[in-house]
Structures are given as C-alpha cells and as structure tokens.
Amino acid sequence: MNLVSLIVPCFNEEANIEPFHKAIVDVFKELPKADFELMFVDDGSKDKTFAKIKEIHSQDRRVKCISFSRNFGKEAALFAGLRNATGDCAVIMDADLQHPPKTIIDMYKQWKAGYEVVEGVKTDRGKEGLIHKLMTKIFYDRISKAVGMDMRNSSDFKLLDRKAIDTLASLKERNTFFRALSFWVGFNKTTVYYEVQERASGTTKWSSKALVRYAINNVLCFSYSPLQIVTTLGILFSLVGIAFGIDALYSWIKGNAISGYPSLLFIMCLGFGCIMFSLGIIGMYIAQIYDEVKQRPQYIVGRTIE
Ligand code: UDP
Ligand code: MG
User: Fold this and answer.
1) Pick from 1, 169, 177: which is nearest to 85 by CA?
2) Are 16 and 10 in contact (CB under 8 A)?
3) Per-position b or e across 246-274, b if 16+ CB within 10 A of its CB
C-alpha cells in the first residue's frame, strides 16, 4: 500500500472542504493499492474552514490540518504541507477543485512508472483577462529562462516523490517560489495535462496587489536579470553622456557656445530617473536579504488536527 499525501492550502474555503474531501475519496476508490492522507493547511482563514476540517476529521481520520496563526500566504502553506507530509509521495493542489482530482490518477500512474516529479500542465489558462494573460506570459518567459525550463502553463498542481519532498522541505530560504523550485530540484520529471476547472465555490483569494507582490517576489527569488538591467542602463547612459561630451567639445573647438538647457534638463531627468529606478531594484534585493537574515519563520502554526 502506498500512502499519498495531499497538500491543500486553504484560505477561507469553508464551502469547498466537504466537496473536496468527497472528490478525493472517490478518486482513491479507483486506486485500490493506494491510500491517502489529506493535509489541509489552513492559511489563517477567517471563516469556518478549520471547523469544517475538524468535522470531517471526526468521520475520516485520514483528514489532517495544520492551521496558521494568521494568513501567511499560499507559498508558506505549501511548504508547511511539505514539511509535515508523511506519504511516499505528495500531490499539491488547490482546495477550490480547479485542479481536477481525477488527474491524481494519471499523476499516480506516472509516479509508479518511476517519475519523481509529475508536473500538472494547464491545457489552457482558464478564464483570464487579456492584460493578465500578457503579464503572466512575460513573467513566465523570464522565469523559464532563469530556471532553464519551460514554465509556461505550469501550475502548483504537482506530484512529488519523497526524495523531492525532502529536498524542498530542507531548503532554508523563506522567500520561496514553489513552482520554480520544484523545477530547480531536478529529478526524473514528466508532465500530465489538465483543464483548469471553474472555482467550485467562493472567489479567488488573490487581490491584484497580492498578485503583483507575488510576481515581484518570485522574480527576485529566481532571477538576477533586474540587476543586469541596472548595469545595462548604466552603460547606456554613460555612452549617451560621452556622446554629449564629445559633441560639446566639438562645438567648443569650433567656437560655438554650448546652448540648450532643454537637452541638459532632459538628460538630467532621465539620468536621475534611471538612478532612482536602479536603486529601487537594488533595494528590493537588499530587502530580500534582510528578510532572510532576520531568520523569522516562514509561518507560525496556531493549532493542528492530527
Ligand atoms: N490560498 C492560500 N492562501 C492565500 C491565498 C490563497 O492558502 O493567501 C489558497 C486558496 O485557498 C486556494 C489556493 O491557494 O486553495 C489557490 O487560490 P485561489 O483559488 O484563490 O487562486 P486562483 O485559482 O484564483 O489563482
Ligand atoms: Mg483557484
């Protein structure tokens, strides 16, 4: 018998807990040689999520929960799940049934065939606005380059073998980006495709602000290219400055007085703008270092159901 840990971050998902559990029970009826441990990670929900999990736990002891003292974010929830999972492998999935539970069967089969990381890849990105689509495309193109693997259409829906779980759980960094780190660990990989479903109940837990913060954090976590932008800008502006200098010298030799405050203002404003922008980028990396140095935990557990 193989034990599959299901790691499910939930933030205000009271209406989804019961249907989710039911869907998982149905899926495992089709996998007679496997049993599951359903590890909900309650990310500081304000609704009855924890009470719902407790209720289901009283009927099914395979249901467990780690509940945070407040909302720490999905990344923290995923890592708490990885650190506490006891299964031979783990499936990471959302609580809102947007990741179709039936796909677990395909993932499990791939794992049995010897794969250690089974990526869930979206066949399409579901219902997303044009701007959102464009932004995510730029973002994932960048991250794919940084990680050296194609991450477009990737998601947090994955199966990880015990080896990958242990590696990820042992990472010391606090600003994690699970989706990219699960590529970064390597191991024997394959993909399964799934169609993103409509959210079963409730609304998305990501505000636009939270999404932007998530994207910036992830770029900082995995890519040095923003720092390279700073260098490139510096070189560019030095070249423009040299060109202006040569032009001024040439005019002086020819006996023409240098005129034109507008051009001076232009170059100064642009130059200052670039310096500020560059300092901002460097500042963001320093903030990340500061975060890591403080060594605060990524999350605080308030209560558990075992
Ligand atoms: N989630 C979480 N903490 C948060 C935000 C979201 O644990 O701060 C969980 C949420 O309950 C869900 C999963 O992460 O199970 C994905 O969130 P959501 O469905 O809101 O994101 P979307 O599918 O809209 O990208
Ligand atoms: Mg969702």
Assistant:
1) 169
2) yes
3) eeeeeeeeeeeeeeeeeeeeeeeeeeeeb
Pairing of strands 63-68, 89-92: unpaired
Lookup: tokens for 177: 């980006």
Return the closest-CA partner of residue 180 out of 140, 238, 130.
140
Looking at the whole model, is its pTM more than 0.70? yes
Mutate to test the pocket of ligand 1, among 65, 79, 94 (most ligand atoms within 8 A of CB): 94
- Please choose, from the candidates 287, 104, 298, the residue with its C-alpha nearest in 3D space to the C-alpha of residue 194: 104
Task: Using the structure block, give the residue that is written with the tokens 């869907």.
Answer: 23
Task: Determine which residue's CA is closest to atom 16 belonging to ligand 1.
Answer: 94
Atom 13 (ligand 1): residue with closest C-alpha?
Answer: 94
pLDDT in tens, 217-274: 888 877 778 888 888 888 888 888 888 888 878 887 887 766 666 677 777 877 888 8
Give 122's DSSP letter: E
- Per-residue pLDDT reduced to its tens digit, 169-208: 999 888 888 988 888 888 999 999 998 888 888 888 778 8
CA atoms of 100 and 237, how far apart (whole Å): 51
- Whose atoms come closest to the Cα of 206: which ligand? 1
Angle among Cα 72, 8, 36 to the nearest 5 degrees reads: 145
